[in-house]
């Protein structure tokens, strides 16, 4: 079950389908992504794998920044850095919120926090290469 206001992610790919399902609320810079942690997301210790959290942060950052412009900006991840400050387990609802620091003509910078309830469990920052406008579809 997803919290109120969340819908299936509006843009997907074979990789996102493999990792997901992902959900979204809001749009552009106010986009929030959500994920209900499933067994497939967990490591042998029963916590959500760091790679899943990195993927969630990367997608949230890229989508929020891309769709904050009109037309949407095509972005390629140049750097992604994460700090893990907590953990999540199967059944937890995770939310990724983005703070766009700067979007220039060549580079874009943003930060993301992934929360479990009220607790921030991941802090991420990314640099993206601006690669024109995003292809629709």
Notes on the structure:
The chain has 137 residues and is an alpha+beta fold. The protein has one domain: Thiol Ester Dehydrase, Chain A (Roll), CATH 3.10.129. The protein is built from 2 helices and 7 strands. The protein has helices spanning 14-19, 50-66; strands at residues 7-8, 22-25, 32-36, 73-84, 93-103, 107-116, 119-133. It has a 7-stranded antiparallel β-sheet. A hairpin with a 3-residue loop joins β5 (93-103) and β6 (107-116). It is globular, with a radius of gyration of 14 Å. It starts with 6 loop residues before the first strand and ends with a strand. The model has no long low-confidence stretch (mean pLDDT 92).
CATH topology grouping: Thiol Ester Dehydrase, Chain A
Structural class computed from helices and strand pairing: alpha+beta
Shape, per Cα inertia axes: globular
Strand numbers in spatial order across the main sheet: 1-2-3-5-6-7-4
- Helix segment tally: 2
Per CATH, which architecture? Roll
> What do we call the CATH homologous superfamily?
Hotdog Thioesterase
What do the pLDDT scores average to? Answer: 92
User: How many strands, which pairing sense, and closed or not: the largest β-sheet?
Assistant: 7 strands, antiparallel
Q: Would you identify the regions where 5 or more consecutive residues have pLDDT less than 50?
A: none
Number of domains: 1
Distance between the termini: 27 Å
Give the fraction of residues assigned to helices. 10-25%
SSE string: EHEEHEEEE
Number of strands: 7
Radius of gyration: 14 Å
Strand content: 35-45%
CATH class: Alpha Beta
């Amino acid at each position: 079950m997803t919290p109120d206001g969340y819908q299936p992610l509006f843009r997907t790919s074979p990789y996102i389908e493999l990792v997901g399902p992902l959900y979204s609320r809001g749009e552009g810079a106010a986009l929030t992504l959500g994920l209900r942690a499933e067994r497939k997301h967990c490591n042998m210790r029963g916590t959500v794998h760091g790679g899943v959290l990195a993927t969630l942060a990367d997608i949230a950052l890229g989508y929020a920044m891309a769709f904050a412009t009109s037309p949407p900006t095509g972005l390629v991840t140049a750097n992604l850095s994460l700090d893990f400050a907590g953990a999540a387990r199967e059944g937890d609802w995770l939310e990724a919120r983005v703070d766009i620091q700067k979007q220039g003509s060549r580079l874009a910078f943003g930060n993301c926090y992934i929360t479990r309830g009220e607790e921030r469990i991941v802090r991420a920052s990314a640099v993206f290469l601006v690669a024109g406008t995003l292809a629709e579809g």
